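Budget justification note: compute hours in this period were largely spent on complex prediction jobs such as the one shown. Inputs:
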Amino acid sequence: MSQLGSNAPSSPSTRRPIVVQKYGGSSVADVERLGRVADRIVATRRAGNDVVAVVSAMGKTTDGLLALAREVALSGEPPRRELDMLVSTGERVAMSLLSIAIQARGVESISFTGSQCGIITNDRHFDARIIEVRPHRIEDELARGRVVIVAGYQGVSYRREITTLGRGGSDTTAVSLAAALSADRCEIYSDVDGVYSADPRVVPDAQHLPEMTFDMLQEMAHAGAKVVNAHAVEWARRAGIAIFARSTFDPISDTPKETVVRANAPNDAFARSVSCDRDVAMLEVRGEDAPNRLLAALEGAALPLLAFDGAAGHARAVVSLISAPDWPATRAVLEHIACVRCDVAFVSVVGPAIASEPAHFMALGRALALADVVPLAQSFGPLRLSIVVDVKVADATQRAIHAAFVNG
Ligand code: ASP
Ligand code: MG
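Corresponding output:
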């Protein structure tokens, strides 16, 4: 192992372990918390690791910037390119402050934007996908013994435009960098100490899940669980990078409480989790050729589809609104052909083989009947059973499903 602080580039045999850490908005919400994050990064560096820390915008900064954009856009849609110029600044503020805090603690560090880190994306502004990562500058700085702080959630397109990666995109920055650097681990710090069987604020007896597979976490993320961004899990799965989800507020420890996500999780056979997505809309079309008319309208709207069912005279779809800043305008267009409802929630139970047993569908039906919940629509995938309900009964639905599937 090379000396800490050595300026000599490390050869493969003396290479320090590379740890990529990601800190979410609540971890750096104010100066005091930012200082604690700096302490954790410094401790990780002093333990003999190379550290790359990806940071989100402080607290609710992104929401605040988006609100300003909507205000100045009057009743129109803010142009997506300008939105990217705007919201990418949130992470730049956090990265530079964090680097200053680390240097104040006597450790060398440098901050980079996504573009400086070689994160190349397509040109879909506000919801871009990473195409490749060329982290040469990071590698050079690590070799100089520096900690590298990276602004999450952003990259640069082939047209040299700044892009952002969709809400919650800092996770994707972290995992894609971990993959490109062949990191030893990727730690994701937030205000919760891992993944639970439900949101503990809604379901008081939710249980901590110590481990799970990429597949399960990805399905949960698609079902609206705000643990780790779905694209980030996809990167982790493809590159085989284990994710360690921890709380930023726990004391620094060698044996922290955490959820480990990896390809093989031998003890996950009974891991089940209930999630709820309120950032959705349900669309219904009646009459001749209803399924095709609805699908054609959705094609134009480019909103991610969560559920769809259709028969001759009736079709129904549920779409995700999380990365749709122009939803009011899109909604106005869709309302010409469909009945659009936003007062709905998409509630799912995710678990290994959950939809391969008829008994599980019956258990779901019984749990809903017992709680007096009438589902508006249903859908399922191999690892997921989902229903759409009126948002007023979303919490009661989660508790009923958790009682039947997790504690049942
Ligand atoms: N700041 C961005 C957001 O709030 C990205 C992130 O937090 O990962 O969505
Ligand atoms: Mg965030």
